[in-house]
């Protein structure tokens, strides 16, 4: 007696023989499945790396990020005052630490270079790595101001700057003009994975500790805080604890009542992916549609093949094969096809993953490596099993109405000629899914085009930038003058924060003269320190008033330039020029902030510093003398391509001071290009998926109609014999083929009403229900389907009626 394994082996062997006899069918089916499963495998690899795989930190599921409210923003950093009191009162956290990232010079000997510098609390790095590659973490002894400054450096910096010297720990190095000693080296591949608005880049070269003391309440908020939840607690309880702490901090500082101060606690991973989750889920939905279309195609192929094998199946039933045995054979063949498709999909998926890695935007580049690990392989296998069951239903349906007496009498052609209405239903389903996918792609492409045409408030063409240490105003001005003399340079200036760059942000409260107390800690603006000529160099439009001059320093009237957004907000009925504005500046030195009254001397058009598609905050510009920064970005506008600009810039900086660290010269257009990356990525992948979906839908329409024409050869021959014109035959075939297409478009329209609103957060300058988009996509689907239907129609009118009647 045969066991279940023996029967399965026989079914597999028989299925392989059947596929070998129909190689064309097998290739088409496997290819359709490989495309659908491979696309799902590739996107799931990305989803797995970003959304599912834990962050590469110890106890990552217990890590939380803590934001505070400043004015009307609830995603602001914390001040020393707030972090100190949070530490004193926390009950639901085991550890809590903060970081602030700025720019500075690389430690050690050699050419002075710019680097990312992390200023951290002593307990911050242990939250994110269990141990160092060399040395130790910061300790309480490192916080003392009179001690030698301790440094921890990245593994990459240790390799390229110190030649992987195993004796680096305890070695004194030059850094920041003071005495420093390296106490540790981070592990290889350590990187930060922070939300984009935290201004914490993935790679920081050097760290030094900061002491959290009971500071003044009005100190600047600059620390981005990470906390570890204690065992047994959850985010809800941690938020309740944070609410209690917020109320206590408010009682300690009545000034904060005006800002409605509150602490917000989010899971670190969930907060990291909040901006990219929508894009990933959109792509996951798109590849699911592609898979369903592929399944519908294979189901049609299998159904057609089953009808062609109806006589064979009938004979097997007549000699004793049970209905269950025949169904098992059909499902085994479906599983075999799906398995072959899954194997091919792994190759396509791997190639797609490589392509995704080459084109993914910076918002996705900081997460875990995208790889086809065990979870991805399990997903591919599960999808293969699901798809085999899904499209395997098609041939099974044909077994429900076997009539031995009738089917044995009929010829193979007559038997397969019986109408199968659900074949048209599958074509309609393919068209509906392709329509929805193409509709979403149209919206994303229009979004990308709209973003390309956004006026960012500056002109990036022929503008180059690099960061430079600026120990004194005189040196910075000399660098500006030296660069202005380089051949091809039209204008030069400097700014503390370059538009669309990842440099740590600087923003604070502002209010106009005469504002009531309750309006004095509500609105916030980005503050920017600049040199005269900045607006001309970057291509911003000065709408009214004047630019800064040499005399705009601390010894004269303190002045500011505001953007048109702030000007309209504070003085909607009058001119902002000559009005007084209260902001924080630091005329006594970098980061020595104090509230100050400044007179508005100019109004500039708003510049998109954070995003190309939204106004995050208005802007206030102050002269460098009123807000000096240790690092500034030089902005150079040239007359055209400047191939020797990088070397010329380094030379001119070295002439002023050879120890002034610089970063590589970069075109501003590259910064803008990075800002476009996510929109480009979504539109590119969705366009590719839509093209595949439309192609599969057209192949399905073509296949179904070709089969219909083949089965109606005798009918067509008779029609031609009695005088039917070629045009009437073409119209008949096209009508037969386009009927399920029109039904599919109607179904796709209904489905799109539920699906396209989900894209609203990803769109810019276009609405989900845009009539132009609907019209264009409908016409495109009709044209593609008509072309797919025309080919069988043309074949129909070329049938020889004599041969057709003789065959019938």
TL;DR?
By secondary structure, the chain is α+β, with helices and mostly antiparallel strands.
Strand portion, in percent?
A: 15-25%
Structural category is alpha+beta
Q: Which runs of at least 5 residues are low in confidence (pLDDT < 50)?
A: 411-419
Number of domains: 3
Shape: elongated
Cα radius of gyration in angstroms = 34 Å
Overall average residue pLDDT: 82
Main β-sheet: number of strands, strand sense, barrel status?
Answer: 12 strands, mixed
Q: How many individual β-strands?
A: 24
Share of helical residues: 40-55%
* Number of H/I helices: 25
Q: What is the CA–CA distance across the termini?
A: 46 Å
Key phrases:
single chain; 808 residues; alpha+beta; 3 domains; twelve-stranded mixed beta sheet; eight-stranded mixed beta sheet; elongated
Describe the structure.
By secondary structure, the protein is of the alpha+beta class. It has 3 domains: 4-51 and 275-451 and 676-807, no CATH class; 72-259, no CATH class; 471-659, no CATH class. 49% of the residues lie in helices and 17% in strands. It is built from 25 helices and 24 strands. Strands 1, 2, 3, 4, 5, 6, 7, 8, 9, 10, 11 and 12 form a 12-stranded mixed sheet that branches. A hairpin with a 2-residue loop joins strand 1 and strand 2. Helix 2 packs across helix 10, helix 8 packs antiparallel against helix 16 and helix 23 (726-755) packs antiparallel against helix 24 (771-797). It is elongated, with a radius of gyration of 34 Å. The model is unreliable at 411-419 (pLDDT under 50).
């Amino acid at each position: 007696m045969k066991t279940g394994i023996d029967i399965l082996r026989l079914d597999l062997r028989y299925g392989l023989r059947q596929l070998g006899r129909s190689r064309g069918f097998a290739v088409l089916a496997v290819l359709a499945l490989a495309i659908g499963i491979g696309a799902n495998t590739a996107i799931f690899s990305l989803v797995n790396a970003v959304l599912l795989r834990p962050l590469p930190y110890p106890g990552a599921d217990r890590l939380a990020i803590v934001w505070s409210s400043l004015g009307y923003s609830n995603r602001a950093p914390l001040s020393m005052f707030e972090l100190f009191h949070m530490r004193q009162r926390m009950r639901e956290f085991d550890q809590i630490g903060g970081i602030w990232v700025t720019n500075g010079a690389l430690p050690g000997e050699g050419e002075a270079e710019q680097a990312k510098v992390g200023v951290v609390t002593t307990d911050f790095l242990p939250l994110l790595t269990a141990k160092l590659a060399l040395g130790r973490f910061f300790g309480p002894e490192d916080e003392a101001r009179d001690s030698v400054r301790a440094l921890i450096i990245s593994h990459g910096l240790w390799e390229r700057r110190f030649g992987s010297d195993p004796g680096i720990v305890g070695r004194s190095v030059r850094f920041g003009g003071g005495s420093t000693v390296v106490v540790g080296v981070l592990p290889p591949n350590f990187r930060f994975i922070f939300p984009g608005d935290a201004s914490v880049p993935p790679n920081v070269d050097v760290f030094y500790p900061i002491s959290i003391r009971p500071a003044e309440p009005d100190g600047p908020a600059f620390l981005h805080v990470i906390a570890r939840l204690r065992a047994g607690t959850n985010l809800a309880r941690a938020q309740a604890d944070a609410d209690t702490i917020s109320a206590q901090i408010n009682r300690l500082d009545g000034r904060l009542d005006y800002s409605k101060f509150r602490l917000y606690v989010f899971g670190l991973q969930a907060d990291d992916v909040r901006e990219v989750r929508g894009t990933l889920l959109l792509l996951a939905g798109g590849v699911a549609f592609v898979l369903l279309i592929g399944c519908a195609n294979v189901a049609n192929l299998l159904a057609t093949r089953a009808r062609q094998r109806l006589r064979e199946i009938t004979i097997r039933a007549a000699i004793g094969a049970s209905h269950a045995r025949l169904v098992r054979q059909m499902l085994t063949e479906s599983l075999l096809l799906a398995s072959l498709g899954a194997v091919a999909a792994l190759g396509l998926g791997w190639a797609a993953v490589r392509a995704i890695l080459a084109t993914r935007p910076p918002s996705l580049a900081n997460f875990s490596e995208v790889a086809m690990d065990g979870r991805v392989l399990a997903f591919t296998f599960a999808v293969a099993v699901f798809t085999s069951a899904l499209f395997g239903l098609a041939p099974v349906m044909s077994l429900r109405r076997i009539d031995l007496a009738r089917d044995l009498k009929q010829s193979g052609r007559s038997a397969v000629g019986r109408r199968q209405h659900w074949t048209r239903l599958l074509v309609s389903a393919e068209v509906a899914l392709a329509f929805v996918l193409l509709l979403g792609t149209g919206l994303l492409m229009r979004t990308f085009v709209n973003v390309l045409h956004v006026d960012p408030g500056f002109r990036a063409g022929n503008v180059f930038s690099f960061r430079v240490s600026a120990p004194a105003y005189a040196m910075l001005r000399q660098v500006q003058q030296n660069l202005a003399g380089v051949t091809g340079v039209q204008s030069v200036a400097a700014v503390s924060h370059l538009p669309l760059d990842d440099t740590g942000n600087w923003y604070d409260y502002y209010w106009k003269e005469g504002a009531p107390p309750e309006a004095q800690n509500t609105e916030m603006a980005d503050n920017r320190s600049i040199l005269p000529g900045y607006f001309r160099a970057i291509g911003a439009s000065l709408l009214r008033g004047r630019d800064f001059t040499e005399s705009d320093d601390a010894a004269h009237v303190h002045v500011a330039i505001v953007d048109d957004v702030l000007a309209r907000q504070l003085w909607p009925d009058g001119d902002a020029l000559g009005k007084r504005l209260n902001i924080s500046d630091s005329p006594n030195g970098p980061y020595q902030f104090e509230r100050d009254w400044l007179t508005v001397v100019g109004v500039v058009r708003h510049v998109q510093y954070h995003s190309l598609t939204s106004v995050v905050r208005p802007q206030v510009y102050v002269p460098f003398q009123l807000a000096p920064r240790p690092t500034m970005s030089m902005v150079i506008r040239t007359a055209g391509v400047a191939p020797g600009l990088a070397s010329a810039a380094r030379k001119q900086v070295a002439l002023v001071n050879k120890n002034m660290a610089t970063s590589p010269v970069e075109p501003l257009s590259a910064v803008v290009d990075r800002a476009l990356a996510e929109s480009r990525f979504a539109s590119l992948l969705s366009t590719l998926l839509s093209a595949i979906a439309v192609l599969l839908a057209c192949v399905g329409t073509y296949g179904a109609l070709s089969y219909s024409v083949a089965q109606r050869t005798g009918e067509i021959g008779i029609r031609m014999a009695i005088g039917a014109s070629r045009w009437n035959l073409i119209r008949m075939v096209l009508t037969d083929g386009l009927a399920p297409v029109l039904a599919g478009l109607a179904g796709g329209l209904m489905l799109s009403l539920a699906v396209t609103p989900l894209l609203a957060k990803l769109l810019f300058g276009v609405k989900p229900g845009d009539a132009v988009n609907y019209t264009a996509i409908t016409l495109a689907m009709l044209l593609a389907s008509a072309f797919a239907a025309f080919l069988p129609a043309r074949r129909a009118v070329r049938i020889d009626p004599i041969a057709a009647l003789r065959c019938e």
